[in-house]
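Bit of a strange request maybe. I'm writing a small parser for structure token strings and I need a real example to test against, not something I typed by hand. Could someone generate the tokens for this chain?
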Amino acid sequence: MKVTRIIALIVVLLAVSSTAQAQHRKKSNNSRQFDFELRGGLNFCQIDGDGSGSYDKLGFHGGLNTSFPISDNEHLRFVVELGVTQKGSHILTNAMDRTISLLYVEVPLMIAYDMLYKQQLRVGVGLAPAILAKANVTTDGSYDQLQSENYKRFDAIPVCVSLRYRITDHIGADVRYYNSMLNTAKENGTGTYRIVRSNKGQFNRLLQAGLTINF
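Reply from user aminoacidic:
Good idea to test on real output. This should exercise your parser:
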């Protein structure tokens, strides 16, 4: 089922890309162009509610996205992306040394606005639903099966805020901030909450920094 969902997400993105190319061939107006972007880099991660509070778990991310105008204003665009991202945390106390590594396949969906000369600066906001592909937790240097199986299949509605600046016509730098709105753990010895107290547990939070290739 996990592989089926991942394949379905890839098919959706390819369908969007095919539609984009078809629309691009039909329209000569530059304001209707679809653009494509490869992105990748590092994640600085933590999990709110796990007993640790610093971005000291490193991860990685990579993805492919496309965007298209959603109004007559060519600067206002909708971004669809398919990618992989590694979330988690590092808990280091006198009693425990635990590393939580969570690999997700994600589909960020954002409203973006392009600014400056040649639309070099793009700001965006949206949601980035994600499917857990692999969870690996080590406690005091050993694989912790119980904790590794304690994470839900979906990180359903992480809020995503994005900022990208194109250094050249094809190369750019970007940063993103993610914050999960729903509990991602099955069982919680401790925890915090989001929005309402009944939504209690562990929540992924991370900063991304990386490079983009636009074409």
